[in-house]
Give the backbone structure.
Amino acid sequence: MPGRRAMRAGAAVATAPAPGGGTLVHRLASAPPLTLRQTGPSTVHLVSTAAGPLGGDRLSLDIDVAPHTTLELGSVAAGLVLPGHGTSEFLVTARVGAGARLRFAPEPTVLAAGCEHRLLVRLALAADAEVLWREEIVLGRHGERAGRCHARFDATRDGRPLLRQEFTVGDPALDSSPAVYGAARCVGTTFLTTPVKEPVVAEGVAVLPLAGPGTLVSALAADAVELRSRLEWGERAVRPA
Amino acid sequence: MDPAVNPAVNPAVNPALLLLADSRLPAGGHAHSGGVEQAVTSGAVHDVPSLAGFLRGRLHTAGTVAAALTAAACACAAGPPPPEPAWGLLDAEVDARTAAPAQREASRTQGRLLLRVARRVWPSPVLEGLARAVPNPHHPIALGAAAHAAGATPEEAAMAAAYHAVGGAATAAVRLLGLDPVAVHGLLAGLAPDLAAVAGAARSGGDWESLPAHSSPALDLLAEQHARADVRLFIS
């Protein structure tokens, strides 16, 4: 995208209790390239209205799920992170109130060759909030070596740390380490507040009961389709349909 | 002779650091492979080069987290304020960074054994306080507190933690694969700059919540597969 200037944009979504019960999406603030569309009574989709993010872009998304309301957030397409001038950043902050439910399951983030990206998630939960938060990272488009990425996820419950995780991508010797991603080209996690008693493991996926009230499904895969099916398998092990 | 330049009086290397990092410290470290045993079973680690990749990855993920938390624990032990009320909070920061239950258990087992040994080798009120507050602390917490009791600095404690993250795994690989022990020690020597970088980056000040939290998804999988394996030479 030659000539495109770095973008600074902040989008936001907030819910409120609907009169007579249920959820009202009472705030929906888009900021190109982050456009939010309401696609159901409590469902919102992220629609990209420009390429990127590109290096230099600073994007943020703020999610506020009011007590006893529900929000489901998805995206219509994978996010392709492209190189540009400097580091691109996507900061997602989310607050989920008492008795509220949030499902955050966007399409994967694809790290194109040469990109330099930072993905920060700060999730603050009330004690009895219910959350499913899925993140998928694809290390480069087909046949391409991934750019650089630093992803950090911090979830707290009532102010206490519940899960803190960082992923770094871009040092080929580390990425291919049998301790890190091995031969995998895709890495993904789903964090759920639903607890499980015992860990479960299958090929490329583990369902891990956290020390606090919650579960992490962690998966590695050769491609995005396999990654999604492994994560969904783990999610079903946590929450049988 | 000026004691500041006499290495016999003011050694460049703190002997406490050598004792803490020594695999002969009877704290049960030899019983853990740090994921190597399962990586050998799965075939991911099968020779010296694949072990090199494993160790580097382990050091820059789990090792980096352990070094940072160990430095924080050592600084916490030094106070002020008095460390006892804070141990539980710091221990919870390790919990939040260790998603795999098998790894949490291995860390607490090693932490408990190290604390028991350290209380006898370096008796101190700080270690008694830790044992009261968190009887089974995570290994970085026990190591940081023990390092303080032994007279080491947070930076030195971080170095011991970084070395611990690869030393035990390397020795385990020698035993499991019958690798040339000299070649494997060569790998560890080759990691010296990485060890220095990891220990040097482990700052002891500042807030705990922003300390490193590097995940190693393959290690998480290996740890849980290992916990289910029928035949095991190592506990983890």
Summary: The CA atoms of residues 160 and 212 of chain A lie 9 Å apart. Chain A has one domain: 8-238. Chain A has a mean pLDDT of 95. Chain A touches chain B through 37 residues (CB under 8 Å).
